[in-house]
């Protein structure tokens, strides 16, 4: 093939390619891009071909030029026509042309992840206390007997120390059996007012079963200031419980015993459950936290004046709350990390 | 603590609530009831059967054929009991009855003979542990009577949860004091059936008291505060009468004989443990409270042999021990059917000493449980008198001499000051004198005016109250705050208002590490990963910090890395058919520290990913995640990691950085562990801004993960997070150029030993300030590319702030870049 014919062939190929691209173009923007790409004066591909005319003899040039002009006109006409179509269809590609025959085909998504259900519960609890002026504090998971027991008014030889059978390391060091050591450490470092929430892992010498795991999350709370009373204690925790468990929730405070609080209380809730048929029924009383007014000995142990300051403290188990809230029957499921389970708690799902 | 509803009512005659109502009230007093069960649950259809005739079974040596009168007719019953008395009355389960164990009785042929029901043992009825034979019933009974009626089991058992501070609640009297109308004043002991009044003298001594040849003595007054003894002679030891057996059965207590049962009865009723010795077995007729000599041994009632250390308190005769003080009696002097003379002990021990011994020996008993929590120091004489009434009424015999009372130091009630102003400061509610008195008196406290003489209160001392604490509360009520709790409890927690008041802002700042965790959770779950949580326990090779009392020897350490746990999670998911597993974890790891120092704790973030790059979609190719995905995710994490200027390095970038740190095993053993799991050529080192290694990433070695054949490559990363994260940088505005930029593409022939990052760096450096951005947009190797090289395409974006760049300027910059690449790196432009 002569160079002349090869140029004409190239122009015709270009015409075919351009026409099909113009038909597929979905909007004005794409059409404009095509116009620049094929017909543009500087960068356009037809102009590029015409630059090659220089290599032809003077006789050979006119047919190529004529063919180029014909292709230009065809393309300009095609662009105009397609532009009109696109405008009349409101800028939308029509189905057949765009090639998406079935709009019911599933959409394209990225992977969805999610925060662990127990940590979601911690986040929910935190957001309620944050709005009541609390901040978060943390402390070590391996600690001393002083912080875990003695500073919290718990003698090592008291049966109360038995209740939370402790995992020990060497040298009388231990894994904290509750998050309460954070109370002591925070008060040692800061002056009142104290309003802290301390989520974290705690450890006990329990074997795995449906309602026990040797490691689990706990959330501690502590408020200390002048003028904090049993009324503030009840009001704050009842407010939390109603916000967390929903309107209509009843809250009950029962006497209990913890070495580091006095008076001590268990907090129970009775929540409203919506049944399948839409009726609302009350649950049984459910124990959700242990709490109480901070024992004066604890305040004395951190160098606070217990005649001047009073306060309250509370602790709860977010995994048990997650069991109740999400209907998970066995605590061990939270440690299996089965993706089928975890995907039930994706980023967008309701709290 | 099991409480019999009937027994409780016998002590608090005014009590009229139903068991359910009582349970509700107990919960609000601090003693929640965990379970309420009818004592005779499942025994409703059992009756009394009288065995008229016993014959051998024709086809079985060990079985008997009994003719049993069920009150209406005589039926044949096959029975396997070794002893069956003709004319004896036994619990009889007729055909059709289901026993408490779930066995449903049918008319059955046993070795060719019909059996129309079953004669039952205690164990089969759930009434006790005795399975050795069928339960012979004594007393005034007749065939056909209801078994529940005969045994007095028409009662309800309430399982009361007693907090460790309330040792006084470990008895029926203790609970009655809380719930009886009028409180303490409304409690009275019911008369013992068949008892006659006792008028006994008490003979006291500081260390030792004797009567006749019997002596009791305390050698350790610091651990034994009081020791009472009574001699009873001529008892007849036999099974307990029905009324006492019924009480004990109602609370699940095994019946043994009338004497032992009497001591248990009194302990369960009044809270004072006691022990009866066979006086004839005591060498020198003495009981001495002393410490054990090291290596001394004794066999306890349960048949176990115990070895004592020199801190343990024993009760001994002049030769050998007969009782682990406050915990369990010895076999040798235990009361048996041959016993005629008793020495009854009722003592008071130091709680700590009991607890120590009990824990060291690993024994748990009702007595030890009560002594640890504190037994009423005023309760001994009444308890001994009650026990004597019961023993004399059920076993006969006579008291020999006075009650012997060794009392080194008499107990004195303490007076506590109670300031109404302090009550108000803590509770937020004002209670006046009369109200406080009305709340505390029913609980057994004696309230008087004018407690302000001692200590703190300066003004208004006359407002203060002085409160005497009764013995049964002397363990848990020792301070003013303890009285305030009693005021709160007696008033009712639910009666305090719940007004939410404004609070002053705290001096503490929200911990920045929590904020860092929040950001990482958001970012990683946004990247499509699920958060996993694993307990921190690890097998030996995955941690340095050892537990001294681990739950299992397989996991006796604390993890020093998160990746092994996450890899196990991936295996778990693979085993359930999941191909796409994307998990991250934020958790604490532990490293060994110097002796006596707590282990070093670091917060780590780690992830594992395997499977497809994107969820399966009809338009997609389903490509698997690869190194580039992982590196991108790692860079995303690093940007949020709280490390200043953290970066990823690969061997090609930094030469031997990774190799070096791999050799330096002391630097961070956790990192070594994690890295040991990774395939070396893909391993990334994560560095903090100052170049400190902070983590690793890469592909998990296939031999380190149990993966099915279909599973894809597994990638992992782990990063130590800073204890003090740097604050998020505030974005700074840069003006945008109003002049158009120019793109130039550069195809380069890059030798294998030249890293892309080196090429990028060289381009940026040579490009100067006109070069806005460099992007790698294509990589090609293979046909058409020179051996030992790859073709890399870079897009250069150039722009000036103050003018439109001319072609000439752009050419000059590109020329400079090409020259630098050729001369500096041996990289040629591909034309």
Task: Tell me about this structure.
- Chain A is of the alpha+beta class.
- Chain A has two domains: 3-96; 117-345, BirA Bifunctional Protein, domain 2.
- In chain A, 41% of the residues lie in helices and 21% in strands.
- In chain A, the strands form three sheets. In chain A, strands 1-4-5-11-10-7-6 form a seven-stranded mixed sheet, sandwiched between helices. A two-stranded antiparallel ribbon of chain A has the order 2-3.
- In chain A, helix 1 (3-24) packs parallel to helix 4 and helix 2 packs antiparallel against helix 4 (61-88).
- The longest helix of chain A has 28 residues, at 61-88.
- Residues 93-97 of chain A have low confidence and may be disordered.
- By secondary structure, chain B is α+β, with helices and mostly antiparallel strands.
- Chain B has six domains: 9-36 and 158-186, Phenylalanyl-tRNA Synthetase, Chain B, domain 1; 47-151, Beta Barrel (OB fold (Dihydrolipoamide Acetyltransferase, E2P)); 202-406, Phenylalanyl-trna Synthetase, Chain B, domain 3 (Phenylalanyl-tRNA Synthetase, Chain B, domain 3); 418-471 and 478-495, Phenylalanyl-tRNA Synthetase, Chain B, domain 1 (2-Layer Sandwich), CATH 3.30.56; 512-720, 2-Layer Sandwich (BirA Bifunctional Protein, domain 2), CATH 3.30.930.10; 742-829, Ferrodoxin-fold anticodon-binding domain (Alpha-Beta Plaits, 2-Layer Sandwich).
- Helices cover 25% and strands 26% of the residues of chain B.
- Chain B has 20 helices and 40 strands.
- In chain B, the strands form ten sheets. Chain B has a seven-stranded mixed sheet with strand order 27-31-32-36-35-34-33, with helices on both faces. A six-stranded mixed sheet of chain B has the order 12-13-16-19-20-21. A five-stranded antiparallel sheet of chain B has the order 5-4-3-6-9.
- In chain B, strand 38 and strand 39 form a beta hairpin.
- Chain B is elongated.
- Mean pLDDT of chain B is 90; it is low at 452-457 and 652-667.
- Chains A and B meet through strand 1, strand 2, helix 8, strand 4 and strand 5 of A and helix 2, helix 7, helix 10, helix 12 and helix 13 of B.
